[in-house]
Design goal:
alpha/beta, Rossmann fold, three-stranded antiparallel beta sheet
Length: 437
C-alpha cells in the first residue's frame, strides 16, 4: 500500500512538472521560461522526489546499508533524469543553446557606422536602403553627416543671428514612434522664429555617444544652448563603447539589430565579433562560458536548469545590482566631461530627464539616481514627468507618441523663450536648477 502511494506521488509530481513546462506551448502565452513555470516545475520535482527522501530518511543508518543504498540512489537519479529528458523531448521542449549554427547568417548593414567618432548613418547607403525597402519613414531623412536632420551640420554666416541649439540623445531624441514633423525636437524647432537646431539623436546610445557628438559638432555650431535627452537606460548603455549595436541583414533579407556586447557577472565586456556569438544573441541566449555549460545546454534537462537559473537571476535583479554602481560611475564621468566641455564653449547645458511609463507613478532607482547625479554635478535638468500621462502620451512600446512629443516640445519651446529673454533657465517651468546655480 505504501509503495503504491509512493508511485502515485512520483507520477503526480512528474505530471505537475511537465504541466509547468507545457504552459509555454499554450496559445497566447509569452515565449521563454518564466517565473510561474519555474514555481510549478520545482513544485512537481519536489513532490516526485519526496517519496525517495522519506524512504531514505526512514531507513537511514550508517555502515553497509548506506553503502548499498548509495548506488541505488544514483541509479534512481540517472533513470529519472533520462525519463525527464525523454519527456521533455516528447513535448517539444527545445535546448537552451541552438544546435545548428550557420557559418554566416548576417552581413553588415552598409548604412550604419560608428566611426568619426560617434555612431551615425551613411547618407548614400541609407538612400539605397530606403529605395530597396530596408528602411522607411523618418529613418530615410538623413543629412550628409548621417543624422536625422534635414539640414547639414555646416556653419554659415546665416546662423550668426539665430538662436543655435544642439540636441543630443537616443531614440526619443531621434523621434521614434512620432510621425515626421511631430517629434519633440521638430516641435521645438517650429515653436519660434530665428532658431536653428541640429539633432544628433541616434537609437540605442548613451552619454558616451552624446559626449562624442557634442565634441564633434559643438565647435562647429557654437550653440547657445545644448539639450541632452537622458533616458534611464543610458546608465546601462554607458557600460559599453559607442558602437553598442550591430545592424545586419539576415538570410531572409530582413534587417536585424543586435546588442554587440556581452557583459558577464563580473563586469567584463566582450565584443560579439564572430557570426557564432551574434547567432547566440539573435536566438536570445548568451554564448556558453565553458565546455561544461555548452554540453549542459545541449540537453533538455540541462536547458531547463540553465533557464531556471537565468530566470531566478532576472527576478532578483542580480546583474543589475552588481553593475549599477559601475554604471553610475561611468555616467558621472561622461556627464562631468560634457558639462565642462559645454562650459568651455559658453553653451548653456540642459538635461531633459525622460521618464519611463512606470516612473510617472513611482520613480525608479535609476530615475532617482539620475537626479542625484545632476544635483551633484550642478547641471540644470528639465523634468516633464508631471505633465505627461502614461496612457495618452506613450506609444505601445516605451517611446512617446505624437501627443507626448508635442507636449514636451511645447514645454521646451517655452523654456527657450524664457532663456532668450532672461539669459537663464532657472525660471523655466519644469526646470530644476541645482543649488548654487
Amino acid at each position: 500500500m505504501r509503495q503504491r502511494a509512493s508511485r502515485y506521488a512520483i507520477v503526480f509530481g512528474l505530471g505537475i512538472a511537465l504541466a509547468g513546462l507545457a504552459l509555454d506551448l499554450l496559445p497566447g502565452t509569452r515565449p521563454g521560461f518564466h517565473s510561474l513555470q519555474l514555481l510549478i516545475v520545482l513544485l512537481g520535482l519536489f513532490l516526485s522526489l519526496l517519496p525517495f527522501a522519506a524512504r531514505r530518511l526512514a531507513t537511514w543508518k550508517t555502515g553497509p546499508k548506506l553503502r548499498s543504498a548509495l548506488p541505488k540512489s544514483i541509479a534512481v537519479i540517472i533513470v529519472t533524469s533520462f525519463a525527464l529528458e525523454i519527456a521533455l523531448i516528447a513535448i517539444g521542449y527545445g535546448t537552451y543553446f541552438p544546435q545548428d549554427i550557420p557559418d554566416s547568417f548576417l552581413r553588415p548593414a552598409p548604412w550604419w557606422t560608428c566611426e568619426d567618432p560617434a555612431c551615425h548613418y551613411v547618407q548614400a547607403e541609407m538612400e539605397r536602403a530606403c529605395e530597396k525597402g530596408y528602411m522607411s519613414g523618418r529613418y530615410c531623412i538623413v543629412n550628409a553627416q548621417g543624422f536625422h536632420d534635414r539640414q547639414d551640420f555646416v556653419y554659415s554666416d546665416a546662423l550668426d543671428d539665430q538662436t543655435r541649439i544642439l540636441v543630443l540623445g537616443d531614440s526619443f531624441t531621434f523621434g521614434e514612434d512620432a510621425d515626421i514633423g511631430k517629434s519633440y525636437v521638430e516641435t521645438l524647432e517650429a515653436g519660434g522664429t530665428g532658431r536653428v537646431i541640429w539633432n544628433t539623436g541616434i537609437f540605442g546610445v548613451g552619454t558616451n555617444q552624446a559626449l562624442a557628438a557634442f565634441q564633434m559638432f559643438a565647435p562647429v555650431l557654437n550653440p547657445h544652448l545644448t539639450i541632452y535627452g537622458f533616458y534611464v537606460n543610458d546608465f546601462f548603455d554607458n557600460l559599453f563603447p559607442v558602437d553598442g549595436y550591430y545592424l545586419g541583414i539576415d538570410e531572409n533579407d530582413e534587417v536585424v539589430k543586435l546588442q554587440r556586447y556581452h557583459l558577464d557577472p563580473w563586469g567584463n565586456v566582450t565584443r560579439l565579433e564572430s557570426q557564432e556569438l551574434l547567432y547566440y544573441r539573435w536566438r536570445g541566449v548568451e554564448a556558453p562560458g565553458n565546455d561544461f555549460e555548452r554540453i549542459l545546454g545541449a540537453t533538455r534537462l540541462g536547458s531547463l536548469f540553465i533557464s531556471a537559473i537565468d530566470q531566478l537571476g532576472k527576478q532578483l535583479g542580480l546583474a543589475q545590482l552588481t553593475h549599477f554602481r559601475r554604471q553610475v560611475d561611468l555616467t558621472r564621468a561622461y556627464l562631468r566631461e560634457l558639462r565642462d566641455a559645454s562650459a568651455a564653449l559658453n553653451s548653456e547645458l540642459l538635461i531633459m530627464l525622460i521618464p519611463k511609463k512606470t516612473d510617472l507613478k513611482k520613480p525608479s532607482a535609476e530615475f532617482q539616481g539620475a537626479i542625484q547625479l545632476f544635483e551633484e554635478l550642478g547641471i540644470s535638468y528639465f523634468m516633464p514627468s508631471q505633465a505627461l500621462d502614461a496612457e495618452a502620451d506613450y506609444a505601445p512600446d516605451w517611446h512617446w507618441n505624437n501627443a507626448g512629443h508635442l507636449k514636451v516640445g511645447m514645454l521646451l519651446s517655452e523654456c527657450v523663450d524664457r532663456f532668450l529673454a532672461e539669459g537663464q533657465l532657472a525660471n523655466c517651468p519644469y526646470v530644476v536648477a541645482p543649488k548654487g546655480l
